[in-house]
Design goal:
Helices cover 31% and strands 21% of the residues. The chain is α/β, with parallel strands linked by helices and 320 residues long. It has a nine-stranded mixed sheet, sandwiched between helices. α1 (10-28) packs across α6, α3 crosses α4 and α6 (239-246) runs parallel beside α7.
Length: 320
C-alpha cells in the first residue's frame, strides 16, 4: 500500500483515505451504522463541585441495550460555545477516572487540565475497563477496537449535543490505549478536528520486534492473529497509512525515546511517511511530533505543547 499521497489533491486524498478505512475494517470488522440512532441518551449519576470546574459522572447509551459510563468535566461559567475534547484513558483499572484526576498519575490528568483551560471534556470507559462491562463479540463485533471506535463516535455525538459545546470544535486526546484509539477515531470520524496521541503507536514492523501478538488479543483485533498470522508484512494497513489519512486535520504525537511499548524509531518512520500527505494539502504545520527523553509517559512540558496545539486548532471560547 502506498505510504504517502505525493502530489495528490484533496479529492484523491479523500479516495485514498477511504481505501485506508476499508483496509482497517478488514482487520477490525465493519463499522456499524450510526445516523439512525440520533444523540445518545444520557443520565447524570452525580455532580462534584471542584471549585473552578465541575465533574459530572454520567451514563450514556451508545446503542440499544448498551450503557457506557463516562465523566464530563466543564469549566465554571461556560454556558455555550466551548471546545469539546474527548479524553481517552490508558490500560488501567480506573479507566475513565484517570484523565479527570481520579487516578494515581498526575501526568495523565489531561481531561481535568484541559477543562481548567476552558474546554468541556468527556472521558468514557473503553469496553471492559473501569465500570464498563461489555462483550463486543457476543454483540456482533469482530473486535473490541471497532466497538471502541463506535462508542467514541457516539461520545462525539454526545459532546456535540451538549449546549455548552460548539459542535464544530471537537478534539480528542489519549495516552497509550487511548493514544491509538484517538488515531482510530480520527480516521473514521472527520468531525474530530485535532488529535493528540501520547505513547500510542509505532509502525507494526517496529512493535516488539515485529510480533503483533499484543495487538491480537480479545481487547484489540483478533483477526491480526487469525487472518494475518501476527505478521506486519501481511497487514493491510500500518499506522503511517492511518496518520496520512488524517490530513489535513491537526495531529500531534508524544513519542518518548525510552517508551518500551512503542519504539520511537518506528514513530519517526510513520511521521516521515505521512508528511507528504500533509504537505500536499498545504497542512504541513498541522502534523507535529515530539520525542522527549522519557519513558512511557506524558511529561508536563510536552502536555503544555499538546494543549497549545489543541487550542490553535480549536480555540477555547471565553467564559460568559
Amino acid at each position: 500500500m502506498s505510504r504517502n499521497l505525493g502530489e495528490d489533491h484533496a479529492i484523491l486524498a479523500d479516495a485514498w483515505a477511504g481505501r485506508v478505512l476499508d483496509r482497517m475494517q478488514d482487520v477490525m470488522g465493519p463499522l456499524p451504522a450510526r445516523p439512525r440512532l440520533g444523540p445518545p441518551a444520557m443520565r447524570v449519576i452525580e455532580t462534584v463541585d471542584m471549585g473552578d470546574v465541575s465533574r459530572r459522572k454520567v451514563v450514556f447509551d451508545p446503542e440499544p441495550g448498551d450503557s457506557a459510563p463516562a465523566y464530563i468535566v466543564a469549566p465554571k461559567g461556560v454556558v455555550r460555545g466551548a471546545a469539546g475534547v474527548l479524553c481517552l484513558h490508558q490500560t488501567n483499572e480506573v479507566g475513565k477516572g484517570e484523565p479527570v484526576g481520579l487516578g494515581g498519575n498526575p501526568d495523565l490528568r489531561y481531561g481535568l487540565e484541559l477543562a481548567r483551560r476552558g474546554c468541556v471534556t468527556l472521558a468514557p470507559d473503553y469496553p471492559n475497563f473501569g465500570e464498563y462491562a461489555f462483550d463486543p463479540y457476543a454483540n456482533g463485533y469482530a473486535s473490541a477496537t471497532m466497538k471502541g471506535i463506535f462508542n467514541h463516535m457516539r461520545a462525539v455525538d454526545l459532546l456535540q449535543s451538549l449546549p455548552e459545546v460548539d459542535p464544530d470544535r471537537i478534539g480528542c486526546i489519549g495516552h497509550s490505549l487511548g493514544g491509538h484509539n484517538t488515531i482510530f477515531l480520527g480516521a473514521f470520524d472527520t468531525r474530530v478536528k485535532v488529535m493528540v496521541s501520547s505513547c500510542g503507536f509505532t509502525s507494526f514492523g517496529r512493535y516488539k520486534g515485529g510480533d503483533l501478538a499484543g495487538w491480537s488479543h480479545a481487547g484489540y483485533m483478533p483477526r491480526i492473529a487469525r487472518l494475518y498470522g501476527c505478521d506486519p508484512a501481511r497487514m493491510p494497513f500500518d499506522f503511517a497509512d492511518v496518520i496520512a489519512s488524517l490530513a489535513p486535520r491537526a495531529f500531534f504525537t508524544n513519542s518518548p525515546l525510552r517508551d518500551d511499548n512503542f519504539d520511537a524509531s518506528g514513530v519517526r518512520e510513520c511521521i516521515e511517511a505521512a508528511t507528504p500527505a500533509y504537505e500536499a494539502l498545504g497542512a504541513g504545520e498541522r502534523l507535529a511530533a515530539v520525542y522527549p527523553d522519557a519513558g512511557h509517559d506524558f511529561p508536563r512540558d510536552v502536555r503544555e505543547r499538546a494543549y497549545a496545539f489543541i487550542e490553535a486548532a480549536i480555540p477555547a471560547s471565553p467564559r460568559l
